[in-house]
Amino acid sequence: GQQVMQIPQYQHVQEGEDFTTYCNSSTTLSNIQWYKQRPGGHPVFLIQLVKSGEVKKQKRLTFQFGEAKKNSSLHITATQTTDVGTYFCAGNNNDMRFGAGTRLTVKP
Amino acid sequence: GAGVSQSPSNKVTEKGKDVELRCDPISGHTALYWYRQSLGQGLEFLIYFQGNSAPDKSGLPSDRFSAERTGGSVSTLTIQRTQQEDSAVYLCASSLGGLGTEAFFGQGTRLTVV
User: Fold this and answer.
1) CB burial class (10 A; 0-12, 13-18, 19+) of residue A74?
2) 3-state helix/strand/coil string of chain B
3) How far is residue B71's CA from residue B80's CA, in Å, rounded to a whole number?
4) Are A78 and A61 in contact (CB under 8 A)?
């Protein structure tokens, strides 16, 4: 069945440094979504990518969808303490499968 | 309510007992998902309901797990003969148009099997 791999599992950065998390799917995806889960909270939708090679930006966050629609990345520029949390990608085909998530911690 | 509601928020049960977890999706949402999240881990897909179609049960870990969705709205996840490894947070989500539309998550049910 469809599997979504996500790396790294953890990332600790100094405030102001950049951060990137990567997702790879074993199958071509119809679309990919990104979610953020704050400590003690539930996942909250960030964005969806649909087109091959698509790039979307939300302020300091940049999301990319690979040409083959099998991989994606989330890049945060100049991290802030409010960026702390776990970032998940979710690949959609016949169902919605989540990656294992990347837990981001930011040192002030 | 305005969001996805799950009950109970916490459940402690003895090993071997059956439990039922409830999810009230956002009104009008056709898709409903169940996930399991162990402490510090990712979201493990369990089951997906879309409208009146047969549910995608491919994620259910064993035949002790079952779920139903009555009238295209409320869903119940049942775990029979609970085991300690079933301890986790069970998250429900719903979306308006199924796959490819934003999923809204409930706060989850924290299940502890002792």
Assistant:
1) buried
2) CCCCEEECCEEEECCCCCEEEEEECCCCCCEEEEEEECCCCCCEEEEEEECCCCCECCCCCCCCEEEEEHHHCCEEEEECCCCHHHCEEEEEEEECCCCCCCEEECCCEEEEEC
3) 23
4) no
Retrieve residue B99's tokens.
Answer: 């796959």
Of A1, A45, A95, the CB nearest to B102: A45
Mutate to test the interface with A, among B6, B41, B45 (most CBs of A within 10 A): B45
CB atoms inside a 10 Å sphere around CB A56: 16
> What confidence tens digit (pLDDT) does each residue in A76-105 have?
999 999 999 999 999 988 788 999 999 999
